[in-house]
Amino acid sequence: MMSQDRTSFIASLIVLVTGVLWGFYWLPVRAMVDRGLPGGWGTIAATAVAALVLLPVAWRRRDEIRAAGPVALGSIAVGGAAFALYSIGLVYGRVAIIILLYFLTPVWSTLIARFVMGWHTPALRVVAIAVGILGLLVMLGAGGEVPMPRGAGEWLALVAGVLWAVGTTGIRAKSTLGPAPATFVFALGALLAAALTTPFFSGWPGDLAAQADAGLVAIALLAGAGWWGLSLCALMWATLRLDPARVGILMQTEVLVGALSAALLAGEHLAPLEIVGGALVVSAGVLEVWPVRRRRAQVASGR
After folding, report:
1. What are the phi and psi torsion angles at 2 (to 5°)?
2. Which tens digits make up the pLDDT trace of 20-49?
3. Global pTM?
């Protein structure tokens, strides 16, 4: 059996690697578009692969899934739906802006926790809300326009962040499902959301048999099994073993990697005010988890 320190180290490394990996997720999404799967069809393909890969495990753990209850299962599925909308948003918007809009989740999580769940809201989380909303306004108004999301991608990312906040609140309150079956339910929720959303933005991708070359199939398999399957299953395992503050801070690597990779590989550069707004959004994410971290540190030190 691994020691607590070793387990924490491995779990932290998994979260860090997952953040980096998802920072590059836009690459397979757009590669599938380039190879003939427009809009959200690539997301449908990837989530279908993930569900199929995880189906044998889910079947073996079907009693556990059945016992989880509708609220827990619904919350996990909503989380998957959030990821699906985020994935589709990467097709229609600039990568860094899409990621940052999605990472406004701490603002929505805090509001839901306070006004829906009735949970105590530390002062720093109120500050996090203000900082996050200020970052949103600065980022969206950087060009002198009214600070509103522009285009389908930005709206999808914003809605995805709200859905993720709803899903994670329910998961935190009700779910006891293990990582593998939870990832299966997550993938099903994502698949359903992608299937319902995609037709509103793009039509049927034509002759799939003619377009589905080996490269497209390989990308869909990699995105589904790698990103949606293995990485999310590992992340769910890791988050059960770490302080939420550490998870939240380590996952900020997704923002950095996504912004840098998009700038270097796709030529998507942020304006100075967009960078300022993005920094405020990231700061809101750190502030949202900081009270938890500090409180636990005080308990550990006996203060």
Report:
1. -75, 145
2. 999 999 999 999 999 888 899 999 999 999
3. 0.88
